[in-house]
Write a structure and sequence with these properties.
It is a single chain. With 289 residues, this protein is of the alpha+beta class. The protein has eight helices and eleven strands. Helix 1 packs across helix 8 and helix 7 packs across helix 8. The chain is globular, with a radius of gyration of 21 Å. It starts with a helix and ends in an 11-residue tail after the last strand. Bound molecules: zinc ion. The site of zinc ion has 7 residues, from loops.
Length: 289
């Protein structure tokens, strides 16, 4: 599943091709992906210009201009409702959603679920093998993203903010870090990597961390995410292509291989239903939670 670095990489790659462009058509081949409905997504985006493409947690977000053209809404109606914007298109890739350009030559293309036509004549395809992805149109951004936790690469992600997230919740670290309402954007890979780098066991109890351990965890989360973005994310299969971070992972996917730091074999545990990778030497088990 694409996590923060993969989604950030996708947004950076799409941005120059989408910002300033107008959607001219939306074709859907999988009705269940559209929220609230295919018709609502079409009505919301077609004719509208993308003013900004950005990321929130694992969502790809496009802000849309209120086109307000003829046959749409009168000026009075616009003033009465959402007068200054045309809503937002939000896409969550979930397990296997990905974009592809229809004019990319010699490319095997499967599992096409939607297409977005643009006013420069290009067609952006949306493919999704597992069919869990969501394409959402909303005028109320908060209704979709309001519950999401803090962005780990933003300035607000201080040691104090992390301490607030960890204390008062006696939870094991790994499930807590995966909780999108606490910290937004971390998934299985980068949680394992950050905990290794911080020298913390995934089952360590969140409220028993010292201030020094919290600072270490904060630094590790940011370093791991930044490095992954530099390497364009992690690619294991065709759900996400083009990444190079898999070569630099310390624990994830390395069960049985020697720890890069201490040579102890990496172990694979099951924590909160997720395969979890640890170095038993670098991340001593404290079993307190
Ligand atoms: Zn080790």
């Amino acid at each position: 599943m694409p996590e923060l670095p993969e989604v950030e990489t996708i947004v950076q790659a799409l941005r120059p091709h989408l910002e300033g462009r107008r959607f001219t058509r939306y074709i859907s081949r999988w009705a269940k992906q559209a929220v609230p409905s295919t018709a609502a997504v079409r009505r919301g985006i077609v004719g509208r210009r993308i003013t900004r493409l950005w990321r929130r947690a694992k969502f790809i977000a496009a802000d849309l201009e209120d086109s307000g053209g003829p046959g749409r809404r009168s000026r009075g109606e616009r003033a009465a409702s959402d007068q200054h914007f045309g809503g937002h298109l939000l896409i969550h890739l979930r397990m296997s959603g990905r974009f592809d350009w229809a004019d990319r030559p010699n490319h095997k293309r499967r599992h096409i679920r939607a297409a977005f036509d643009l006013d420069d004549g290009r067609r952006l395809l949306f493919c999704d093998m597992r069919k869990f992805a969501k394409i959402i149109y909303t005028t109320e951004l908060d209704a979709v993203t309001g519950q999401l936790g803090i962005e780990p690469l933003e300035r607000q992600f201080t040691a104090t903010a992390l301490e607030r997230a960890l204390y008062g919740r006696a939870r094991q670290l790994k499930p807590l870090l995966l909780d999108q309402t606490v910290i937004a954007g971390l998934g299985n890979i980068y949680t394992d990597e950050a905990l290794f780098q911080a020298g913390l066991h995934p089952t360590a109890c969140s409220e028993r961390l010292s201030r020094e351990e919290i600072e270490r965890l904060r630094t590790a989360i940011r370093a791991v995410l930044r490095k992954a973005i530099r390497h364009r994310g992690t690619s294991f299969d065709e759900a996400y292509l083009g990444g190079g971070m898999q070569k630099y992972l310390d624990v994830y996917g390395r069960a049985g291989l020697p720890c890069r730091r201490c040579k102890t074999p990496i172990e694979r545990l099951r924590i909160a239903q997720r395969g979890t990778h640890v170095c038993p030497n670098c991340q001593p088990f404290d079993g307190k939670c």
